[in-house]
Amino acid sequence: MHAADLLSKRAELTPNREALFDLHTGQRHTFAELNTRANRAANFLRQRFGVQKGDRVSILAQNCLPFVDLLFGLGKIGAVFAPLNWRLTARELAYIVNDLQPKVLVCGPEYVSVLEEMRETVRVPFFVSLEGADIPGAEAYASLLEQADGSEPERPPLDPDDAYCILYTSGTTGHPKGAVLPHRQILWNAINTVVSWGLSEKDVSPILTPMFHSGGLFVFLVPLFYVGGRIVLARSFDPEDSLKVIVEEKCTVILGVPTLFQVWMNSPAFAEADFGHVHFFISGGAPCPPSLIRAWSRTKGVTMRQGYGLTEVGVNCFSMTDEDALRKAGSVGKPIFHSRMRLVDAEGRDVPRGETGELVIAGPHVTAGYWRNPEASADSLRQGWFRTGDMARQDEEGYFYIAGRYKDMIISGGENVYAAEVEAVFREHDAVADAALIGQPDEKWGEVGLMVVALKPGLSAAAEELLAHCQGRLARYKIPKRVEFVASLPYSPYGKVMKAELRKQWKVESGK
Q1: C-alpha span between 385 and 437 (Å, rounded)
Q2: 155 pLDDT higher than 80
Q3: Which has the closest alpha carbon to 424: 411, 437, 412?
Q4: Cα 424–425–429 angle (5° rounding)?
Q5: For the stretch 316-336, what's the b/e string if a residue is b when 16 or more beta carbons lie within 10 angstroms of its beta carbon?
Q6: Residue 456 per-residue DSSP state
Q7: What is the pLDDT of residues 368-403, one digit of tens each?
Q8: What is the pLDDT of residue 174?
Q9: I want to staple 211 with a disulfide (CB 3.0 to 4.6 A). Which of 67, 234, 323, 457 is the partner?
Q10: Of 342, 305, 352, nearest to 327 (Cα)?
């Protein structure tokens, strides 16, 4: 079985079961209906635009049902789904589009002006408009879908290593890279998630994060379709509306990022929200403060797990039991079922348990490499092991803790200082909303820590107070030498602090 068969098989097994509720349109769709839509998308792309195996098709739009059509429809004909990050500038998008060279670009009305700005510099044979978007020369998606044949398209021969999706990294250093996600990776991420997280056909999950990101596509969408569960599709995130949806649709498994969980707690609707139907919340994208996990447990009695994943190795790489989610707060858990993981030093040797090393991962859920970038592929994939660039340690019970990105590690006086560990201590202070550690040159120590802190609304704390808070919690060499305050930290669409922006602001160069 290939990932391309997933929706067809599910539609065969449970055709009349509700698969997706589209909040934007108010329509509910069965698996049979979604499969027919995917077939229609595949057929019009092949027949109208000549899309064949290996051709790329992109979409630039807010979350909407065509993401689902294209994800599953393109897989059926062996073409490649390559959604675009709408948060990027026209110049940044133009680089990606020219690197991808998609045969078709589907665009929503919100991004017509961005498309117009870059259209003269990109090479795209065909454009398709969504929801009445005014794009010269483009055909309307709804009309093409309605007129297309809904039967299963003829399948080309598919290999598990054939590309299914190409998703671009954030490009914080140099140009962004397109991670090639093969058919096997999509399928095995679904299998690993269902088996390791205990998902069932009774589970319901909302998609609240952008679908141009691997989290929106693969944390719950594909795994739940694999097992026969249900998705609630939100166009964008609104604190009050999303809480209402979680309660009304009786969602059982919910993905968020740490900032989202904090926003929910600050919402007037939070106190009245009944989460009795929830199996677990899972936080991803960035380290979740244990204090936040404990706060949700204390106030709502719910299980919150901390997840870990990368686009290149599958978004769901670890598993945590409900029983240990609170006891091991701060850990991402243990490796998923069908996976191999090691922690290694700079020479690739395994480090002893308890020591920090780079996390490397192997298994069928690992990327095939980077699009048209053999150098980056060779650097990241070595003898089947993917170098994540994340530093981690494993405790005596086998639980993993992420210490931070290698490039964020500070070497002070010959000692390694891991950003995530220091940031976690700062976040435990009652007045701190979030904190991000960057290094700055120092004549004596080589490098010392600069902590950039955002305080909670209405609360205050002096730098001296925060540094005193670290005493006894961190070794002296780990305590930052400088604290600066900002109104808010810069975040990526998936909740990660963009440290490259902080380095620019504080004029610090990263040599890693």
Answers
A1: 29
A2: yes
A3: 437
A4: 110
A5: bbbbbeeebbbebbbbbbbbb
A6: P
A7: 999 999 999 999 999 999 999 999 999 999 999 998
A8: 63
A9: 67
A10: 305
Neighbours of 352 (CB within 10 A): 9
pLDDT digits (tens, 9 = 90+) for 131-148: 999 999 999 999 999 999
Positive or negative: CA dihedral 480, 484, 487, 490: negative
HSE-CB at 320 with a 13 A cutoff on CA atoms is 28
Distance (Å, rounded) from C-alpha 118 to C-alpha 103? 16
Which residue do the tokens 């609104």 mark? 238
Q: Look up residue 254 and give its two tokens.
A: 């919910």
Give Cα 26 to chain centroid, integer Å: 26
Q: The sheet that has 482-486: what strands, in order across it?
A: 432-442, 446-455, 482-486
Partner residues linked to 182 by β-bridges: 163
Q: What's the rounded Cα separation, in Å, for the pair 74 and 58? A: 11
Q: What gap in Å lies between CA 198 and CA 336, rounded to an integer?
A: 11
Phi, then psi, of 116 in degrees rounded to 5: -60, -40
CA dihedral sign of residues 117, 120, 124, 129: positive
**Token pair belonging to 67:** 């993401």
d(CA 28, CA 34): 10
The residue to which tokens 């249900």 are assigned: 230
Task: Give residue 174's region: left, alpha or beta (phi > 0; psi -120 to 50).
Answer: left
Residues paired with residue 25 on neighbouring β-strands, in sequence order: none
E strand or H helix that includes residue 139: strand 139-140
Q: What are phi and psi of 499, to 5 degrees?
A: -70, -25
Q: How far is 152 from 509, CA to CA, in rounded Å? A: 53
Domains observed in the chain? 3-12+28-148+159-181 (3.40.50.12780), 411-505 (3.30.300.30)
Residue positions counted in the chain? 512
Place of tokens 């039991």: 321
- For residue 408, give the DSSP letter: G
- Residues near 387 by beta carbon (within 8 Å), at least 6 away in sequence: 358, 360, 379, 380, 381
Q: DSSP for 89-112?
A: -HHHHHHHHHHH--SEEEE-GGGH
What global pTM score does this model have?
Answer: 0.87
Q: Decide: 62 and 236 in contact? Cβ < 8 Å.
A: yes
Phi, psi dihedral angles at 84 (to 5 degrees): -110, 140
* Collapsed DSSP state (helix, strand, coil) of residue 157: coil
